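TASK: fixed-backbone design
INPUT:
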C-alpha cells in the first residue's frame, strides 16, 4: 500500500508561509535537550522547505503542561536552539503560540527562514481541539504540513485543525512512517516473523490480533507471556498476569492454530523472588515456575529458539521488550533478540516507546531497517486504524 496523501513535493512552497506541525516532544532537563532523535527525524522536511524558499513556521507540543499558560521548563526555546545548532539554518523562536506576538513574528519572517512557535499545549484548547485553535494557526500559513507522526493519532488542534482552512499535506517523516508501517503488513516478504513483548496482553490485543492475521510466526515474550502460560495451563508463580485476559489469550492461540500461524512462547525463563534492582535471577523451565517466583526475562533456551526463527525470516516486526530490560540482570533476553534481529538480513521494523529505548540502550539502532518515532501512533497503524492527522490531509 503506497501512501495515498499529498506531500510537500506536491505543492509550491516558494515564498509561501508553511505552517508545519512537527514532533519536538524530546526529553528535556534543566533546559538541556537529551535525546535528539525526534529533531533529527524532522530535519529532511525542514531542510526541503528551506531549500525551496519557504517561510517555515514550526509548532509542536512538549511534555504535559497543564494548559493554563506558559511553564518555563516546558518551553520549546531550548529545542529551537538545538535545531539551529543541528541544522545550521536560521532559526528564530517566539515565546507565544496563538497571540499577537506570534502573529508579528510570522509577518516578519523571511523566505528561507524558520520560526519556532511556543509549546502548543500551553493553551488547554489545543488538546480539546477547539476550532479557534486550528483557525488561528491556519491564519499564520498558506500551506499546512503535518510531519508529527508521534501525534498523528491524536485529533488535537495543531494536528488536525489547520487542515480545515488551508491546503494540508504530509511531510517526509509522516509519509515514510505510514508507508513503512502499512506496507509490511499488506505485502511482507516472507517468512514474516512478528515479535511481541512488553508488559500486558490487554494493552496489545489489537496488535496481537492484527499480527496473527499477517505474520507467519508470532513470537511472544515479556510479561504478557505469562497470561499465555495460564491459557496453556501452566502456573506462573508471582509473575505479571492478567486473569481476565486468559480466555482471550486462549482464543488467540486457537485462531493462530487454525490459520497455520506458528506461535513461539518462552520455553525457559529467568525468575526472581521479587521485583527490584537487587533481585537475582535463576533459570527455570516454563512449566516449572515455583509459586514464589516471578518471570523477569526469557531464558537461554528460549533465546536460541527465537534466534532460529529470526535467522530464517525475511521480515521482522518487533514491539515490546522480552523482559525487564531496564534492570541489567534481566536485559539479556531483550539484548539477545535485538542482536539476532540486527544480525539477520531481514527487513526489520521496530515500533513502541520502550522497545526503541531498548534498541538504543544496546546501540543497535543503526542496524535496523526502520525505527518508528511514534509509540502510540505506530501501534494504532499496526492495529489497522486510520490516524486522524493523516485522514485530514489532501488525497494524492
Ligand atoms: P513498548 O513501549 O515497546 O510498546 P510496553 O510498554 O508494552 O512496550 O512494555 C514495556 C515494559 O514491559 C517495560 O517497562 C518492561 O520492563 C516491561 N516488562 C517486560 N517483561 C516483563 C516481565 N516479565 N515482567 C514485568 N514487566 C515486564
Ligand atoms: Mg511502553
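OUTPUT:
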Amino acid at each position: 500500500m503506497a501512501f495515498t496523501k499529498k506531500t510537500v513535493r506536491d505543492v509550491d512552497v516558494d515564498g509561501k508561509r508553511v505552517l508545519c506541525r512537527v514532533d519536538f516532544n524530546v526529553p528535556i532537563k534543566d533546559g538541556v535537550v537529551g535525546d535528539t532523535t525526534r529533531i533529527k527525524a524532522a530535519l529532511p522536511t525542514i531542510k526541503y522547505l528551506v531549500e525551496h524558499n519557504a517561510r517555515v513556521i514550526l509548532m509542536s507540543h512538549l511534555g504535559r503542561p497543564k494548559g493554563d499558560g506558559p511553564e518555563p521548563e516546558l518551553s520549546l526555546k531550548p529545542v529551537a536552539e538545538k535545531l539551529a545548532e543541528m541544522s545550521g539554518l536560521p532559526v528564530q523562536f517566539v515565546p507565544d503560540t496563538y497571540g499577537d506576538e506570534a502573529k508579528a513574528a510570522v509577518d516578519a519572517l523571511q523566505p528561507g527562514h524558520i520560526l519556532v512557535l511556543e509549546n502548543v499545549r500551553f493553551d488547554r484548547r489545543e488538546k480539546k481541539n477547539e476550532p479557534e485553535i486550528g483557525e488561528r494557526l491556519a491564519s499564520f500559513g498558506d500551506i499546512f504540513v503535518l510531519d508529527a507522526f508521534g501525534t498523528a493519532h491524536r485529533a488535537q488542534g495543531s494536528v488536525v485543525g489547520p487542515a480545515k482552512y488551508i491546503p494540508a499535506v504530509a511531510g517526509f517523516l509522516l509519509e515514510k512512517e505510514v508507508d513503512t508501517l502499512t506496507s509490511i503488513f499488506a505485502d511482507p516478504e516472507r517468512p514474516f516473523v512478528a515479535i511481541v513483548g512488553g508488559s500486558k496482553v490487554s494493552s496489545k490485543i489489537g496488535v496481537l490480533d492484527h499480527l496473527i492475521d499477517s505474520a507467519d510466526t508470532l513470537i511472544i515474550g515479556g510479561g504478557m507471556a505469562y497470561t499465555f502460560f495460564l491459557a496453556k495451563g501452566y502456573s506462573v508463580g508471582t509473575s505479571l498476569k492478567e486473569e481476565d485476559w486468559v480466555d482471550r489469550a486462549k482464543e488467540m492461540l486457537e485462531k493462530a492454530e487454525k490459520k497455520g500461524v506458528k506461535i513461539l512462547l518462552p520455553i525457559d525463563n529467568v525468575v526472581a523472588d521479587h521485583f527490584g534492582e537487587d533481585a537475582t535471577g535463576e533459570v527455570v523451565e516454563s512449566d516449572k515456575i515455583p509459586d514464589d517466583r516471578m518471570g523477569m526475562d526469557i531464558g537461554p533456551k528460549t533465546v536460541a529458539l527465537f534466534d532460529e526463527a529470526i535467522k530464517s525470516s525475511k521480515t521482522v516486526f518487533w514491539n515490546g521488550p522480552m523482559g525487564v530490560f531496564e534492570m541489567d540482570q534481566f536485559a539479556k533476553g531483550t539484548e539477545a533478540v535485538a542482536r539476532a534481529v540486527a544480525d539477520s538480513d531481514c527487513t526489520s521494523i521496530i515500533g513502541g516507546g520502550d522497545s526503541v529505548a531498548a534498541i538504543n540502550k544496546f546501540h543497535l539502532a543503526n542496524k535496523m531497517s526502520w525505527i518508528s518515532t511514534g509509540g502510540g501512533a505506530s501501534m494504532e497503524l499496526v492495529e489497522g486504524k486510520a490516524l486522524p492527522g493523516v485522514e485530514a490531509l489532501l488525497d494524492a
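COMMENT: The chain has two domains: 8-175, 188-382.
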